[in-house]
Every structure is written in C-alpha cells, then in structure tokens.
Amino acid sequence: MCSPDRSRSLFSDLGLARRLERTEAASCAQFVEARARVFPESGAQWIDVAGTYAMFDTISSPVTQTFGLGLFERVTGLEMERIEQFFQERGAPVFHEVSPLADGGVLTLLNERGYQPMEFTSVMYRAIRKDLSLTAARNEKIRVRLLREEEQELRSSITVRGWKDVFEFADFLLEIGQINVHRPDTVSFVAELDGQPIAIGVLVISDGVALLGGACTVPEGRRQGAQLALLESRLRYAAEKGCEISMMCALPGSASQRNAERHGFRIAYTRIKWQLRSGA
Fold first, then answer.
1. Which of 170, 46, 51 lies closest to 103 in space, CA to CA?
2. Contact present, 139 and 225 (Cβ < 8 Å)
3. Is the pLDDT of residue 155 over 60?
4. 144, 196: one domain
5. Which structural domain, as residue segments, surrounds residue 226?
6. Residue 137 gets which letter from DSSP?
C-alpha cells in the first residue's frame, strides 16, 4: 500500500519554493566546494549575493549558474552586475534558474539587461515518511545498496554509460564520481540485477529536504525496474534520516516527469533558465 499522500497539505507557495530552491542551491554549492578540493586548479568557487547562490564549477559545467535569484531578497541592478562580473571574470556564460515565485522585479531586470529564456524545468515534490511504499510492483531480482567509497570506478562507469546518449558533458560525467565522494551531504545508491550493477541514483539531504538526482541506467539494464527500486530506496533512506519532503527536477512533459507523478510527486512550479546574451 502507498503511504497517505501528505503532499496535499504542502502548498506550492513562497515558503515551499524557498525550501526547494535552497536545497538545490546548497547541493550545488557543496559540489563546487568538493571540486575545489579535488581539482584546485579549476578555480571552482561560489558566492552569496542577496540570497542568490552564484556558482562557478567550470566554464562548461551545468552547475555553473545561479539559484534563488530574487527569491530570498530583492535584487537590484548593482547586485546583478556583481553576479555577472563573477562569471565574466572567469570566462563563463551567465545563467540564472529563476522560480516564478521570485520577486516580480527580477523579470524587469532580466529584460533590461539583455537576458533571454532558454530552458524550462519542472520542480516537483512529495511528502515522505518512514513506512513509505510505492504502489508499483517491484522486480524482486533487483537489489539496491549503498555505493561504497572505494567503488569510484564502478560509479563512473555506470554514470558515463547511463548518460552518454543524452548528456553532452563527457568530462563532467567522468569527474562526478571523484567529486561526490568528497561531498558530506551526498549518498549514492546502486541497483543490481542478478548481482550485476545496472543503475545508480544520488540523494542529497539538506534541511529536511531530500533532493533526488543523478539517476541513470546502463542501456542493457533498462526497463527492468531499477529506477523504481532506486526511487523507493532513496525515499525510505531520506525519511529515516529525518527528511519530510523529497524533490526532483525534470524536463516538462518528459517520461521522467510522468514517472515521478505516478509515484506521488506533484509539480510545485515550472522554473525558467535565463542566459545573458552575448554583447548585452
């Protein structure tokens, strides 16, 4: 039986948006700090400007962007200029992930300063509890366990093989395993079919919120129920660690979003990613 859906008592309001956005921002900040320790030559760094986390991972990294713009404090032109300079001084493009619950003045600033929208993301959430059980039938041959620290090679192998047909940042994928080991907030899970590792999933815990990400399955292991097993295992683990909300992000209308909704997730809001146009 599926646990009662307590997410119905969680409203998609400013308070929830702040919790979700801060969780993802904190997760990315931890990633940047870990990269700085593992690859000090990268120059990885992040700053907080008016409640906005601006993160430089590498020039081409998808982590290089901001979260929380205008969501925690009002942002002025001077603060926008400071954020833009942070990226431009490092030769990086300027990206902002902006929640629709951010201060309305943000849209004015983005338009005035030459930004253009370039991506949408569904931010989803659901309440969790320790006795959580998903309704879908599990493949009993699938076993899920925590990935051990010394299994970096296995982690990298599954990640690269699982994402290579949909993800363009090959170097970034290879480095993820090395970096995640040094993140105190991150736990990785591996799903095995008849003893063979076929899928991986990452869990980040921050302030009572569990962020689910990094899930992929190697091509020959797909459609066997590995991701369902990983989802349930991560949600139970998070609940046991005291989390009351879980979140994940997906492309609007995608298979990932549909699967999340099948298992009790609701869309909190659709976020827009903005990019500063060249020469603006």
1. 51
2. yes
3. yes
4. yes
5. 126-267
6. P
What is the domain count for the chain?
Answer: 2
**What is the per-residue DSSP string for 177-225?**
HHHHTT-TTEEEEEEEETTEEEEEEEEEEETTEEEEEEEEE-GGGTTSS
Helix, strand, coil share of the chain (percent; to 5): 35, 30, 35
SS3 call for 73:
coil
The predicted-structure confidence for 239-255, as pLDDT tens digits, reads as follows 999 999 999 999 999 98
**What are the tens digits of pLDDT across the range 18-45?**
999 999 999 999 999 999 999 999 999 9
The token pair at 57 is 């991972």
| CA atoms of 83 and 75, how far apart (whole Å) | 10
Residue 117 lies in a domain: yes
CA distance 200 to 192: 9
Tell the residue number behind the tokens 């493949």, with chain if given: 139
Percent of the chain topping pLDDT 90: 62
pLDDT for the residue 5: 47
Instruction: Centre a 10 Å sphere on the Cβ of residue 30 and count the other Cβ atoms it contains.
Output: 20
Location of structure tokens 């030769």: 91
User: Can you read off the two tokens belonging to residue 3?
Assistant: 């646990």
Strands of 95-98's sheet, edge to edge? 45-49, 52-56, 65-67, 95-98, 266-276, 115-127, 245-250, 209-217, 196-206, 186-193, 142-146
CA distance linking residue 81 with residue 153, whole number of Å? 41
Co-location of 35 and 92 in the same domain: yes
